[in-house]
Design a protein that fits this description.
486 residues, alpha/beta, FAD/NAD(P)-binding domain, Enolase-like, domain 1, five-stranded antiparallel beta sheet, 15 helices, 25% strand, Class-I_Pyr_Nuc-Dis_Oxidored, NAD, Pyr_nucl-diS_OxRdtase_dimer, NAD(P)/FAD-dependent oxidoreductase
Amino acid sequence: MVTDTDTGTDTTYDVIIIGAGPVGENVADRVRQGGLSAAVVERELVGGECSYWACIPTKALLRSGAALRAARQVPGAREALTGSLDVAAVLRRRDDFASHWNDQSQVSWLGQAGVSLYRGRGRITSTRVVEVTGGNGATTVLNARHAVVIATGSGALIPDVAGLREADPWTNREAAAAAAVPGRLAILGGGAVASEMATAFAELGASVTMLVRDGVLPRAEPFAGDLVVDSLRDAGVSVRLGTETTSVQRGPDGTVHIGLADGEQIEADEILVAAGRVPRTQDIGLDTVGLTPGARLEVDDTLRILAADGAPVGGGWLYAAGDVNGRALLTHQGKYQARAVGDVIVARAKGEPVQDGRWGRHVATADQRAVPQVVFTDPEIASVGLTAAAAAAAGLRIRVVDQDLGAVQGSTLHADGYRGQARMVVDEERQVIVGFTLAGPDVAELLHAATIAVVGEVPLDRLWHAIPAFPTISEVWLRLLEAYGR
């Protein structure tokens, strides 16, 4: 059922989910598979940030350039190239993957899954009660028998820079949905979004300047950021490290004037703010349950929202999954949380045992220990678990083993001049890998093997018998284990 809201309607479901992005959809699906009824509330497009303004359209923007780079690195294929990227074709492909910002297919999927959809803004008004205000101003009161789940995601952080908000900056949304490529693009930030969009728009013909205060990919292993900076600069991107932006102003002709702390002025046609994310928890009724609107939601191991005293809110009927709890701001991790939340709500509703042990099905253990992530820059950066610095800070006695990916036979066959690096971080007490990072062309598809090794805590002497196929880039595993054994 899809409804905008009908005045006076009072409907009861087992579970109500506020937010119909990938996380909310997966919670609803899991609840339905467990035999409970579910309704989701969404004020924008069903499918959320990932489908329309983040993961999917941005990777579509990046893929054409990556394919062209790959062809240029292989003799025989290189000679077949006759031109540069067709920008219009890239944008059309991006539009197709974003479903032209039409969510009808996702709405249909909800219907097939037996999930009711209410379009409008959802607010918690009392215990297990959500009021939905539709676009027509009418309201619907939804009652939950067992649980309410907040899955409203996150939005772009706009730093407190003089004039920035008034300059109408781009966020990831405007960049992902851009109808044209600006001649000059300034990017404020150095994280994954900033680095990926610098890569994409430089390949699409923009003159790109990155204004970076805290380093490029500062949470990754240092070599990852260094390789990406080198590549961006080779592509013509001006990467300004250690830069503090102090003012932004958009002139009458649309030109953006950016002031830096050292007095320099930079001009651009657009400025993209990619300086972090904030939870979308404003105006959803958190104050009615004693929580602070706009705040990140603290959760226990089964993702129940906790009050200031550390106890579950209202005895445990309110949950938070995905970006709103701040544990791991990645779509795949949010969906992982969604499965755990859906299953634990069903178990509690049916009076079944809650499996909340370290690796129980009702907890999101990996969000604290083994988060995989890929940054689709040139080179790709794929990582899981802890960096060497994070592992040392956690008090582990570690050994770090590095390997030049360009020296692996499979890499030299994959592309001429292949550049990359791999690192494994070993917990010496347990002889298991706690962190793994790969940097190089097309390394994203190697990441899941590392994720299994970290999550499964596979002993190194057992990994020695996992023989990589030859000649593939996966041979890096053998080289790393050989280096460790020396």
